[in-house]
Design goal:
alpha/beta; six-stranded mixed beta sheet; Nucleotidyltransferase, domain 5; globular; 12 helices; single chain; binds zinc ion; 34% helix
């Protein structure tokens, strides 16, 4: 399979029983949890109804292939609830937190919240992994067609198929949550990059702030995620994100100033994306953003509008149309074909 789209061709055809059931599985691998959803085929413009959803905290100890084994075990558990076996699934979409690296051509995960060896002992994740296998063990066990993509890229595909980015050829999905993730689409083509890592703008730089730059889980100091990711706030600001945002929402002046400063940094990131790619609409998701959309979206819009009008006029910032379910639908959207 050419290009950087991450596609596995373990088995070329679905089994007859899979064709009968039509069930698809969406696997969402995050730094905090792994979720598996089963759904029937999409019906027109409506997202497919989720029939079953199982999830567990992401495994971070044990054998090197513990995460892949966890995915397979959760697939079995979800299928059992529907009276199916996993080899009866018509397709399996895997949306995974990145970045990806390749070992002998196969995708592995090098995510800072799963692999404790990336930032060293300071993270204390209970392992010293620098990457964990994903594509090879899934291909070996499932023998079915599996599509793997970065989670923000998968969410972008879901937003383009069923959410707030339908019919928009130049667009991005940005998640603002524990970390910062970005999926990009230009001229109607979703961008993947050489290892499927296009859009890792959370690990880019937008500012030098006074003092020692904070450490990101990736090992960078002072990148966007280390400055405004939800996980960074207790260390950097001495307050967790929900408490800070609630205080700002309630009109607390100091909290409002801190939230405005965070939005100025996110606004620079959004502007950089718009300026680089000539985007027309950005869908924003993630728990931090969606739980405080009414507060944050107007601030982000005014930040974007402060920068070069020739590039930013008319650019739309909107909340994710699929809301907090965009992660589940992202994995399923990988099975829809096209980009
Ligand atoms: Zn980083």
């Amino acid at each position: 399979m050419g290009g950087a789209r991450v596609i596995m061709d373990g088995m070329q055809q679905s089994s007859p029983s899979a064709a009968r059931s039509g069930l698809r599985a969406g696997v969402d691998i995050g730094g905090t949890k792994v979720a598996v959803s089963l759904a029937g085929p999409a019906d027109g413009d409506a997202p497919p109804p989720l029939l079953v959803r199982v999830s567990e905290p992401t495994v971070k100890t044990g054998a090197f292939d513990a995460l892949a084994r966890q995915v397979l075990r959760l697939l079995d558990a979800a299928c059992a609830r529907c009276g199916q076996a996993r080899d009866e699934l018509a397709g399996i979409g895997v949306s995974a937190c990145g970045p990806f690296v390749r070992q002998r051509g196969m995708i592995e995960l090098a995510n800072p919240n799963i692999c404790g060896g990336l930032a060293g002992a300071v993270r204390d994740l209970g392992n010293d992994w620098t990457h964990v296998p994903l594509q090879a063990p899934l291909a070996e066990a499932l023998g079915a067609r599996v599509f793997i993509a970065n989670d923000a890229v998968a969410a972008l595909q879901a937003e383009r198929r069923w959410g707030a980015l339908r019919g928009v050829a130049h667009c991005a999905y940005v998640t603002w949550s524990t970390g910062i993730g970005v999926g990009l689409c230009v001229d109607g083509r979703v961008l993947f990059g050489k290892n499927g890592n296009a859009g890792h703008a959370g690990h880019s730089y937008v500012a030098d702030l006074p003092g020692e730059p904070p450490l990101c889980g990736c090992g960078n100091r002072g990148d966007v995620e280390s400055l405004i990711g939800g996980a960074s706030m207790p260390r950097r600001l001495g307050i967790d994100a929900p408490t800070l945002l609630r205080a700002a929402q309630d009109g607390d002046a100091a909290a409002t100033a801190q939230v405005q400063a965070l939005c100025a940094l996110m606004g620079r990131l959004l502007y950089n994306l718009v300026a680089t790619l000539d985007l027309q609409r950005i869908s924003l998701g993630g728990a931090l953003l969606l739980h405080h959309e009414a507060l944050l979206l107007p601030l982000l819009r005014s930040e974007l509008a402060r920068h070069f009008a020739a590039l930013t006029d008319g650019v739309e910032l909107v909340g994710a149309g699929l809301g907090l379910q965009v992660g589940d639908y992202g994995a399923l959207a990988l099975l829809e074909g096209g980009s």
